[in-house]
């Protein structure tokens, strides 16, 4: 079963194209994490928040990622992190066109 990880935290920037350039290497390393199927990067310059929605192949790999990512964010001075793991209801997600075709094998 696959799991969604929702993460958000306060961030004073950068955002937009500047964020994309600054975090390009980080994005590449995140893509290499065990069990990660994809990540959607989220940002809100208006509220100074950033984070992501991740899809992991198991709850175990999502939990491992939270532990590692929390340590990495702490190195950037970010210590308050909201993280939640959710199982996916594949039948309802398929009705609403969620990107789950790749999940058929999981």
Fraction of residues in helices?
Answer: 25-40%
Sheet with most strands: strand arrangement: 2-3-1-4
- The first-level CATH class name: Alpha Beta
The geometry reads as globular
Low-confidence stretches: none
Q: In terms of structural class, how would the helical and strand content be classed?
A: alpha+beta
What is the first-to-last residue Cα distance? Answer: 6 Å
Q: What Rg, in angstroms, do the CA atoms define?
A: 14 Å
**Count of alpha and pi helical runs:** 4
Proportion of beta-strand residues: 25-35%
What would CATH call the architecture? 2-Layer Sandwich
Keywords: Monooxygenase, Oxidoreductase
GO molecular function: monooxygenase activity
Organism: Lysinibacillus capsici
InterPro entries: Dimeric_a/b-barrel (IPR011008), YdhR (IPR014910)
Provide the fold topology:
Layout: E1 3-10, H1 16-22, H2 24-31, E2 36-44, E3 49-56, H3 59-75, E4 81-87, H4 90-95
Antiparallel strand pairs: 1-3, 1-4, 2-3
């Amino acid at each position: 079963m696959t799991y969604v990880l929702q993460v958000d935290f306060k961030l004073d920037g950068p955002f937009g194209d500047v964020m994309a350039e600054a975090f390009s290497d980080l994005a590449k390393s995140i893509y290499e994490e065990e069990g990660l199927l994809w990540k959607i990067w989220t940002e809100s310059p208006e509220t100074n928040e950033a984070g992501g929605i991740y899809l992991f192949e198991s709850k175990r790999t999502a939990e491992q990622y939270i532990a590692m990512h929390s340590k990495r964010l702490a190195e950037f001075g970010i210590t308050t992190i909201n993280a939640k793991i959710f199982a996916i209801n594949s039948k309802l997600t398929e009705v609403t066109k969620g990107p789950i075709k790749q999940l058929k094998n999981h």
